[in-house]
Amino acid sequence: MDHVRWLETLSSGDVDAVGGKNSSLGEMIQNLESAGVRVPGGFATTADAYRAFLSASGLDDRVRELLDGLDPEGDKLAEVGAAIRDEFTKAEFPEDTAEAIREAYAELSRRYDTENVDVAVRSSATAEDLPDASFAGQQDTYLNITGADDLMRACKDCFASVFTDRAIAYRTEQGYDHLDLALSVGVQKMVRSDEGSAGVMFTIDSDTGFPDTIVINAAWGLGENVVGGEVTPDQYTVYKPFLDNEKVVPIVEKSVGAKEKTLQYAARKKDGGDPEQAGDTTENVDTPTEQRNRFVLSDDEILELARWGVTIEKHYDRPMDIEWARDGRSGELFIVQARPETVQSNAGAGTLQTYRLDETGTVVVSGLAIGQAVASGACQFIASADDIDTFEEGRVLVTEMTDPDWVPIMRKAAAIVTDRGGRTSHAAIVSRELGVPAIVGTGDATTTLSDGQEVTISCVEGDQGQVYEGLLEYTVEDLSLDDVPETKTRVMMNIGNPAAAMQWWRLPAHGIGLARVEYLVNNVIQAHPLALLHPDRVDDEARARIEELTTGYDSNEEYFVEQMARGIGVIAASQYPEPVVVRLSDFKTNEYAGLIGGTTFEPDEENPMLGWRGASRYYSDDYKEAFALECRALHRVRVEMGFTNVIVMVPFCRTPEEADRVLETMAEFGLERGRDELQVYVMAEIPSNVLQADEFSERFDGFSIGSNDLTQLTLGIGRDDDRLTHLFDERSPAVKKMISMLIETAHAHGKYVGICGQGPSDHPELAEFLVEQGIDSMSLNPDSVLTVIEKVAEAEKK
Question: Whose CA is closest to 731, among 749, 755, 696, 748?
């Protein structure tokens, strides 16, 4: 009987012998090291060794006796689990098993030219990470284990962790026999990430199932802080299809996490002797402010990890959940675990379930949204696992961190809200698997929310999840993606929020006809671009907020360019290679004034709707330098990141002469029409755009009809005037004549014409009219796409 196997002798076919985790490590060492993927060496105890341990000590019979008739949701779970683990602690290894482990450890130490090599000791269950279920994180891991005696203790503790409360409950839920599962212990050379960094990588978007991105989380120190949700990590998102193109840097998202703690090696106990228990070998310390405020990984490191992720995914032919570490001494990156992703990769593709809030409320706290759902209920605080028996089904679980130990109550919760954690923590993974929406990393939920307070949890408004005061009304709808008809007319989406672009990627839309940068400026950048360029001209409060926003960036200008480029990049990635039409900023002066520092730079206009907006700002001496930042961001998206599917659109361009000035200004700042395949459209929202369509066609590659403004200016009705709403109608004969004239003239010049607005969704007869006129595309809100495709298909048959 083999008690121990070296990792390099293992492959994916050895799951029964050493579990999914260890067999996967061996598989990568054998097959992927030649592709540059680095995996630390080591060995694994076998399932036979585990069973021999149980048999020699009589534990198998004792375990069955203790588990007989146990209700995993009853009040005896903790008591029974503790009793079983105590039995493991008191048992002794068979002599031949102990000798094999000690000899293997001595050999590993010799391989690394040291007397007692420091190792990571990880559990690998023989039934874990099956295609239809994930046992990941249910057994224990011990880091910085040094010396044979400490290793033997850690191995026994790993064996005992087969019977943690969460593991018992999960196996019962999944219908697995507790003693059919065996445990292998993986013993690997520690990567000195205690002096470096570590984290988790998914080769699929773990919230939306979008298959073309790699999502990487990173924090300083050992990786258990990220896995366990102890910290809010950095997040990086990479577009996979461009990774082979060395001319571009396809990092579409970079966000700095709080990284509150750093897990590092602890001083040895008892004057250098053995620790009191395996867990005493590490300690969590406060992360210095300077490290909290900067990115953990460089762009080159992000791309190296992402390429490894693609290599691993291709080898296993399925999306993967990967743990990585960077050695702080050598600077080298390593893969320390890889397992199949089991939530999004198993999700059905035929139906898209959508949640929509039907009313608004006061936001109490916010954090990272996990799962795309809405839920409501009364808050219940749970401070520790000792109190989980008190949790009432259907309540909103509020705690500092959602530990996987709490699976028995997580499945009872309507939603989960935590102070700490990131998108790739085990808590987030379990929440997704259970279908329970969660908001993690709020920072202050446990101090801001009150026990018993009624709240609504919304994870459908972007990356940020919101906790609203009160029980708000919301709608759940199942949209069928089966048997969607093909149409000649493109049906596209209007998108402002990058997270929404990812949420709706499954829709059979043909690109994005209107991507609004105002969302990014208002919700992400937040500051007026001129205030970023001239912080000395704003008041102290605005200057302080700008300093806080731009922490970690080389300059305020780079903050604006980076944030806008990443946001547009996510939107472009969600549809590539389909076209994504990005409209340049079209804030009115009163809207610009509402940004941080905005009042310093904006005039007070009587009628902002007809004032200094759109194209007129771009070449103005009073705004041109701010417009340059937008151009730099779009150049970065198209040239440096590689998203040549981005088309730029100029809004509210009043005359052909103004168009010339805008195009000259854009070219001055790196956006030259025709260069690098750049197309430039113009919004057709002013009667002059229609009446002088011949001249505009000479300057632009296409038109997009802004039906709201075109209706407003054709009929002379303020679109926000409540007393005139009965007259505001996009179906007006005058407006339809404008649309018809534009399509005819533009097509005569071989130019593209689309429309962006809800008119075709709200009025079936308008959709039919547009098809009759030969419009090239209709772009509308995502939740209307399927309905309009049906309407367009019917109209095209006539």
Answer: 755
